[in-house]
Amino acid sequence: MEHGFPPADEDAAAPALADALRPEAEVTALRPEAEVTAPRPEVVVTAHRARKQLHVSVTDNGRGLPEQFDAERGGNLGLQIVRALVTGELRGTIELRNCADGGTEAAIVVPLARGTTDRLTGRAGPP
Question: Which residues contact 50 (CB under 8 A, 6 or more apart)?
Fold first, then answer.
């Protein structure tokens, strides 16, 4: 499963989402001396099952993580909550890294328990 947010003119709900994702680009555009050559902000979420694990990747094309960023201790409250949920409740791992071509990737791996029920569909999980 993969989802990239469509350009604002393709979806009625996209303008609000696009506006929330690109405040830095718009601030830069308002500066008369700035040349706006930055790509349109994009967030891509992918998920797949492999070897009794769920792999989720969330990538963006932003500026990436600062050099001094400590993924274990740093981040805002949202990242702290996600880290606690993934590592504690779901017994998984989360890794944050800069992408080679710019942007950031959050890679999450969660074990899929045998014989569990999917909370969304109510169907049994993989054997």
Answer: none
The H or E element spanning position 83 is helix 77-84
Helix axes 23-30, 14-21, angle to 10 degrees: 70
Q: How many other C-beta atoms can be found within 10 angstroms of the C-beta atom of residue 96?
A: 19
Quote the radius of gyration of the chain (alpha carbons, Å).
18
Residue position matching structure tokens 């993934």: 86
Cβ(52)–Cβ(114) under 8 Å? yes
pLDDT tens digits, one per residue of 76-93? 888 889 999 999 999 999
pTM score > 0.70 for this model?
A: no
Burial class (CB in 10 A: 0-12, 13-18, 19+), 41: buried
